[in-house]
Specification:
alpha+beta; Nucleotidyltransferase, domain 5; 60s Ribosomal Protein L30, Chain: A; five-stranded mixed sheet; 11 helices; Bact_RF_family2
């Protein structure tokens, strides 16, 4: 549904939406508990800058997904009741998204912020607060700054705080599978934190020369630097995918399924590792199954006993991808061979 509330007309539409959605759900024989759960998710609407959409999924009377999709314009709300939801709009907006950290560090600690490329909103923050009065004690006492003991104590506090920030970065990286860590702040603190990070994370680190914690840095300049680093990671990931596809295309396509029929066959045997979707006709339909192999071609009598129904190919493919532990990426057509529109990198070679 449209989630923008910047105008009076948009606000009025949002006010009418819960009642309209309830009628549509009831007409599709939705369970009363599901109807109430969805209405509850729609009522506490907040103003968001257009274009923006909201995607809500309800199951068993509980809201299991309530996602905002920035940049997606929706003219009419889509309301559907069925054995599985159509997640394609959400998947396209999330395709290739990743989590990243922005750490703002200083000698007396630091803050680590979690973001995901799918949304401009900060997802969370955690911090380490040291004791600045201990670190700077030598500066406050005339004649004592150069004393080795005072300096050593201050250095030890900086090191201890850096270790704690590095540990926090490691925890948040492991919890969120981050693919980029951006370090900013005091130069010595940055160096100390970088030195304390595990070697496995250092490849993900980029440093920006801005002391953001003191408020002296130009926020727009810092944001521009962060945006460029994020875009670089996206571009590198796409280039790596393109290289993999090109290598398989020149290798007899031993581990590359090309075209809808081959991709469906690969999903049926859980052979597909990553499904790559460009543009293909959504008027193609596939059968969704209630058990393995989860997906079947439109024609044929195979697995007739477990057929849930027929739906547009994108919806059924997305479901089968999830149920076979594959991933899916929506990519430019130019990345796929022969204008196929869809392909899959395979876990093992075709026999």
């Amino acid at each position: 549904m449209d989630a923008s509330l910047g105008t009076t007309a948009a606000q009025e539409a949002a006010d009418r939406l819960p009642e309209e959605v309830a009628k549509l759900l009831k007409s599709q024989q939705a369970q009363p508990g599901d109807v109430q759960a969805l209405i509850g998710a729609l009522e506490p609407a907040q103003g968001l800058k257009a274009p923006v959409a909201r995607f809500v999924a309800v199951h068993g009377g509980e809201v299991v997904l309530n996602e905002v999709i920035p940049g997606l314009k929706v003219s009419n709300s889509s309301v559907d009741v069925g054995p599985f939801p159509n997640f394609t709009a959400l998947a396209r907006s999330r395709g290739g998204s990743f989590s990243y950290l922005v750490a703002e560090v200083s000698k007396d600690g630091g803050e680590v912020h979690l973001y995901n490329t799918a949304s401009p909103e900060r997802l969370g923050s955690r911090g380490i607060v040291g004791l600045p009065e201990e670190i700077h004690h030598a500066r406050k006492v005339p004649g004592e700054y150069d004393q080795p003991k005072a300096q050593a104590a201050a250095d030890e506090m900086v090191r201890r705080n850096a270790d704690e920030v590095a540990e926090l970065i490691s925890e948040m990286s492991n919890e969120n599978f981050v693919r980029l860590i951006i370090l900013s702040g005091d130069i010595k603190a940055r160096e100390a934190v970088l030195g304390a990070l595990p070697g496995t994370l250092k490849d993900y680190v980029d440093v920006i020369d801005s002391h953001t914690r003191t408020g002296g840095a130009d926020a727009k300049h810092v944001d521009a630097q962060i945006t460029k680093l994020v875009e670089d990671v996206k571009a590198n990931a796409l280039a790596e995918l393109e290289s993999k596809v090109a290598a398989q295309s020149g290798n007899g396509r031993a581990q590359l399924a090309v075209g809808l029929d081959e991709v469906v066959t690969a999903l049926q045997s859980a052979q597909a590792e990553m499904v790559l979707v460009g543009q293909y006709q959504s008027e193609h339909t596939l059968r969704a199954l209630s058990a393995e192999p989860w997906i079947a071609h439109q024609e044929g009598e195979d697995h007739a006993e477990s057929v849930l129904g027929e739906w547009p190919a994108p919806e059924v493919l997305l479901r089968a991808t999830a149920l076979t532990d594959a991933s899916i990426r929506y990519v430019p057509d130019s990345l796929l061979p022969d204008g196929a529109g869809i392909a899959a990198l395979l876990r093992w070679a075709k026999s």
